[in-house]
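Known limitations

Files may contain more than one protein. Parsers should not assume a single record per file. Below, a two-record file is shown to illustrate correct handling: read the sequence, read the token line, then continue until end of file.
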Amino acid sequence: MFDLSGQVALVTGSSRGIGYAAARALGLQGATVVLNGRSANTLDAAAAALQEEGVKVQIAPFDILDIDQSIAAVDAVRDSLGKIDILFSNAGIQHREPLLSFPQQEFERIISGNLTAQWALGRHIAVGMAKQGYGRIIFTGSITAIRGKPQITAYTAAKAALHGMVRQWAAELSEAGITVNAIAPGYVATELTRNLWGDEAFNTWLQERVPQKKWGEPDDIASAVVFMAARESRFVTGQVLAVDGGLSSCMM
């Protein structure tokens, strides 16, 4: 089950963390994976590590904020590999500041990176998927779109809209053989959350608030990505799956 041999998977934001773990998991299931990030050097190192495990991999350096560059890079991938079967649209950006002092310019930048860029790149890839009559589109959502959190007003707004977009796209793309879903990660131990690992107060809160009383690992998200990318998930679309140890499901 979940054999992805012969399929091509593009994973944005995949030089490290959740994106890298997802690309690795997809590759170990047989997919040819295309790694994306802004730095070619970082991507080369990630690709080399995957190749040592027998994963078929290419790199596609581009910045998701540059939509024209992103679309050109996707077209180059299609020219090279012939198709894109799976998109895990994971790259995103963040800005933390209290609502009352949050600059509108930053709000618009975060909305652009976490919503507009996702829409534009995803739509472009969906055109090719529709022509081949098959595709899997998976977005990284957020539990902050399910439960509010201070100081990330733009991010929360963008991810909430992204969750809505998942449902709308599922309604529109299903007849073309494309499923569209999102994963909403909880607190996952990555380089981006490193500053919280050693925060005693935060870890006490996490132990009290998360039913499983632990941090998630990138592989926890990666396994959900493999499921949503597989042919076996053909009847699952328009869904947002929280992978968060139960954080968003209960009041504690």
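...continuing to the second record:
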Amino acid sequence: MTVNIKVWSDYVCPFCLLAEEPLLKAVEGEDVEIEWMPFELRPHPVPTLHPEGEYLQTVWKRAVYPMARRMKVDIKLPDVCPQPYTGTAFEGYQFAKEHGKGTAYTPRVLRAFFQEGLDIGRIDVLTGIAAELGLPAEEFRRALEDGTYRQAHQDALATAEKNLIQSVPTIIVGGTHRIEGVPHPAQLRKAIDAAQAEAAMAENTAAEGAAAEAGGAPADWGATCGIDGC
């Protein structure tokens, strides 16, 4: 039975990019469906951060770069100043999702920002990404300019609020097993196994509604960005 994995992220959170590799390792060979979910750390008009500021410089030196080196992931603090709002990019995600490219869109936007230093708040940059993914570029551009998917994005943010999302990445496996921060592959695999076991048990003994528990997180993982900082 397919296990749904929802991954809440924001395109300006470096830990969301770092979460992709352990996520893909954990799901290799598994019957899962990954769904990237929107969460804005600093929605308009909350001021966004400046890359040259002490806060970001400290967080990157203390946490982001050491984890990236350990994981062998190419990442850099973009010099886009101030950092872009991500609402428009998330409207683009809703377009991509509707056109069957949602799973590819989010990792590509994260790489565009953290590996290529592109300003993902600009519609022309997002349109280039859409075209690269095989989406109809002009239709995509018009949708962002017209706000066609603005309500769909607001509905997605309401889903994040309903699930009490306060930091990213946050991963919910099978609707019940919650992991906050960059997951260790073994931790995520354990949650997948538990969700699969629960689904099988529920299918066979629906009247009893039996469920298993997923294990805890290894102590050296779990870095997140929250509304108050990373």
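Parsers that stop after the first record will miss the second one. For reference, the second record is described as follows. The CA atoms of residues 17 and 107 lie 7 Å apart.
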